Amino acid sequence: MTAARLTGPIRGGRHGWPFGSAAEEIAAYDYIEEEWFLDGEAAAYDLVAGTEATFDGRWTAQVTGSFPYRTRMVVRRPADPVRANGTVVIGWNNVTAGVDLDGQDLRDPGFFAAGFTAVDVTCQTVGVHGFTAMPAGLQAWDAERYATLTIPSDDASYDIFTQAARAVGPGLLGGIAVERLIATGASQSAARLLSYLNAIQPLEAVFDAFLLTVHWGCGAPVSTGGAGPLATMMDLISEPWDYRRHRTRLRTDLVPVFVVNSETETTSCAAVRQPDDERYRFWEIAGSAHTGGEHLFLTERLERDMGGPLPGTETTLVQPNDLDTRPVFAAARDHLQRWLVEGVAPPSFPPIELAGDPPEIVRDADGVAAGGVRLPDVRVPVALLTATTPEQGWGSLTGSREAFDAATLRARYGDRDGYLAQYDRAVDEAVEDGIVPAAAASGLRDAARARTLAFED
Question: What is the domain partition of the chain in residue ranges?
Answer without folding.
Answer: 5-255
